[in-house]
Specification:
- By secondary structure, the chain is of the alpha/beta class.
- The protein contains 21 helices and 30 strands.
- The chain is globular.
- Bound molecules: adenosine-5'-diphosphate (ADP) and zinc ion (ZN) (2 copies).
- Keywords: ATP-binding, DNA replication, DNA-binding, Helicase, Hydrolase, Isomerase, Metal-binding, Nucleotide-binding, Primosome, Zinc.
């Protein structure tokens, strides 16, 4: 009797999702296929996660049969099923939640009956353990790992002696055979080679990665403008000529218009885009094109990591340090970890690119766990801009109450006089981040969230940035009745107003979540500024990366330390990254440019190292802190969050959970909390946190997995990025 393990498309708290069914003789079922099965008193759809013979199975047990095979071919190829099961285990979710992340919504796929379909062999498992070096098994594996996927027909024609070896490796799951369309190159655009001759460092990077073994992982560390993107482009050019596919991940498509355009202009309609504003049908179309091998390159956001590539050769994570690579909802994966899994199981190479690598990645490189390539020079002879740091406490003492220091004012005046452009960063939108009574100190709070409301001048409204609650600004204090209401904590709107006051003729653009809601508005803003239809661009971190403006000669960072006091262990890392990224926005044209950093705590090492453009300096200090306190990369972290509209119930739940995880202390985990979350109330829910730090093993994961699946108001995030 054949038995299929089927992951049921239903989430029932506390219940395992995979159930066993008998496969009737007349049905042909493969792993990854969708099937209909009886479930309780009804039926359910599910995905076959494993097939086996009934050996060792209790004969007394009569299994229900698989009723129907839904699609004529598997929706998920074998490595995707394996990946889904791994993601479920790694990030404590149900397998179906992981599978769903891999499938376009409302899948309506045409049956896969293309006659041009060919059988393609590719490496999906690790190098075979049995077999001497030089044995047929090794030879075949090496060949496929090096060359990438091959047509089975061609492989056997040239090496008929490999027939049995191939069969064995397929049986073991080391090599997979998939049916796919012959990669059809769409008519019209032949990719054109680079207009540039690579410099020495770039050429070496391309060579090293190209020559590296299948599945190798690399940190490509290079300051902005050092030519990383050109390295990706040229490697991909080689890859697709070799018949492989490439995936380029960017933090957010809308924020990187230039990167996207460079891929499109180099590779034309070989490039598909994958991002959140695609419609369901566009999504399904791209998904199919990737699966069939019609699309050679995808540029996309994190969820593109789950696209069904048949012969993936390269994965690039550009700006790999960005927090957007961590998914906050189920499955709560980190894109870098999934990319590493893919490298290990499909042989794709991975490049992590950044000017300011995450501490984890920098650590892996220094431990030789991944390759490490540095681009140390900017293209051309452009230098990094000098950075001047201004202590805003002194400005205040010397009577300057403006949000701009005298140094920044002077630089701006000069730049505008020379018809050059300036960018001003402030990582806070709105006009004022809080509204407070001068007499009693009462600040207006959101009634549903424990945060102060932000004043937005354009709408003349107070708004909550967590739940979007809005209200009219009060004329008198709700607490003491005073009329002395004041606005504090400047946001981007306020910066624009100050620019208008000081430089009446300057044309100003504002870039934040309020002004840039669509990809179109983003391209528009980019075009307007690059073509100098404005002089000053005021924005949040949205504009800190990926944009190249040759006429910008001054970058001002209005408040460098806004994030330094958040209760989040990545606060220094984030501050450092933001400062470096922001200062990379100048000095891209002919002039070296100038950066002015305003801070209330300028002596902080994150600010000091950013000022001297020293990643190593920053890393040395930060890694010590991580080591001392056991934060990643030195320990694993789990954030347990309980959120409930009833405060009493939230407290009850969190103390019950605290009891349940008490045993973890004996397994070497440090348990912090339970305590109210830094934001104790959001959208009307009371929030409590427990933070776990320490080693990780299957026993620990099993306990946490049970809690995640059984406690409905508790969610557990592995290696969280959002700690508030
Ligand atoms: P990064 O991705 O590291 O910021 P880019 O690849 O965007 O760097 O390169 C910066 C600029 O230099 C881009 O405008 C790019 O077109 C140009 N460039 C890159 N490589 C070369 C090269 N070898 N010769 C000339 N220009 C180059
Ligand atoms: Zn008051
Ligand atoms: Zn709110």
């Amino acid at each position: 009797m054949r038995i299929a393990d089927v992951v049921i498309d239903r989430v029932i708290p506390g219940l395992d999702q995979a159930w066993s069914y008998e496969v009737p003789n007349e049905l042909s079922v493969t792993v990854g296929q969708r099937v209909r099965v009886p479930f309780g008193k009804t039926q359910s759809l599910g995905i076959v996660s494993a097939l086996r013979e009934n050996e060792g199975f209790d004969k007394e047990l009569t299994l229900k049969p698989v009723l129907e095979v839904v699609d004529p071919y598997p929706l998920l190829n074998p490595w995707m099923v394996e990946l889904g099961l791994w993601v479920a285990q790694e990030y404590l979710c149900f397998p179906m939640q992981a599978f769903k992340a891999m499938l376009p919504r409302n899948i309506r796929l045409k049956p896969y009956t293309n006659l041009a379909a060919e059988e393609v062999c590719s490496v999906v498992g690790p190098r075979p353990k049995r077999g001497r070096a030089g044995s047929r098994r090794q030879q075949l594996w090496n060949l496929l790992a090096e060359r990438g996927p091959m047509l089975k027909r061609e492989l056997l024609a040239s090496m008929p002696e490999m027939r049995t070896t191939l069969r064995d490796l397929i049986k073991e799951g080391t090599i997979a055979v998939m049916r796919m369309d012959k990669a059809q190159i769409p008519a019209g655009t032949e990719p054109h080679p680079s207009p540039y001759v690579l410099n020495e460092e770039q050429a070496r990077a391309v060579e090293q990665i190209w020559a590296g073994p299948a599945g190798s992982k690399w940190l490509l560390e290079g300051i902005t403008g050092s030519g990383k993107t050109e390295v990706y482009l040229q490697l991909i050019h080689k890859m697709i000529h070799d018949g492989s596919q490439a995936l380029v991940l960017v933090p957010e498509i809308a924020l990187t218009p230039q990167t996207v355009m460079r891929f499109q202009s180099r590779f034309g309609n070989h490039v598909g885009l994958w991002h959140s504003s695609l419609t369901d049908s566009e999504r399904a179309k791209t998904w199919q094109a990737v699966r069939k091998g019609d699309l050679a390159i995808v540029v996309g956001v994190r969820s593109a990591i789950f696209l069904p590539f048949g012969h993936l050769g390269l994965i690039v994570l550009d700006e790999e340090h960005e927090g957007t690579y961590k998914q906050e909802e189920h499955p709560r994966y980190h894109t870098r970890d999934v990319a590493f899994w893919l490298a290990d199981h499909t042989g794709a190479k991975v490049i992590l690119g950044s000017a300011t690598p995450s501490l984890e990645t920098a650590f892996f490189a220094r431990q030789h766990l991944i390759g490490w390539i540095r681009l140390t020079r900017r293209i051309g002879s452009r230098t990094l801009p000098p950075v001047q740091i201004v202590d805003m406490r002194e400005e205040l003492q010397e009577g300057n109450h403006s949000i701009f220091s005298r140094a920044l004012q002077q630089e701006l005046t000069q730049a505008l006089g020379r018809h050059e452009q300036a960018i001003l960063f402030l990582n806070r939108r709105g006009y004022a981040s809080f509204v407070m009574c001068r007499d009693c100190g009462h600040a207006v709070q959101c009634p549903r969230c424990s945060v102060t409301l932000t004043y937005h001048q354009n709408q003349d409204q107070l708004m909550c940035h967590y739940c979007f609650f809005t209200m009219d600004p009060p004329k008198i204090c709700g607490h003491c009745g005073s009329r002395r209401i004041r606005y504090f904590g400047a946001g981007t709107e306020r910066v624009v107003e100050e620019v208008h006051k000081l430089w009446a003729d300057a044309r100003v653009l504002r870039a934040d979540r309020d002004t840039l809601r669509t990809r179109q508005s983003y391209y528009q803003l980019y075009q307007d500024f690059v073509e100098q239809r404005a002089d000053v661009l005021v924005g949040t971190q949205m504009i800190a990366k990926g944009m190249d403006f040759p006429h910008v000669s001054v970058v001002g960072i209005v408040a460098a330390d806004v994030a330094l006091h958040l209760p989040d262990f990545r606060r220094s890392e984030r501050t450092f990254q933001l400062l470096v990224q922001a200062s990379g926005r100048t000095g891209r044209g002919e002039r070296p440019g100038k950066v002015v950093v305003q801070a209330y705590e300028p002596e902080h090492f994150a600010i000091q190292s950013a000022m001297s453009h020293s990643y190593d300096g920053f890393y040395q200090q930060e890694i010590e802190f991580r080591k001392e306190l056991g934060y990643p990369p030195y320990g694993n972290l789990w954030l347990l969050e309980v959120a409930d509209p009833s405060e009493a119930r939230a407290q009850n739940t969190v103390s019950r959970i605290a009891d349940r995880i008490g045993v973890l202390a004996d397994m070497g985990l440090q348990i912090l909390g339970p305590a109210p979350a830094p934001l104790p109330k959001v959208r009307g829910r009371f929030r409590y946190h427990i933070l776990l730090k320490g080693p990780r093993n299957p026993e620990i994961v099993a306990i946490l997995s049970k809690i995640e699946h059984e406690e409905l108001s508790c969610s557990i995030t592995v290696d969280p990025y959002y700690m508030l």
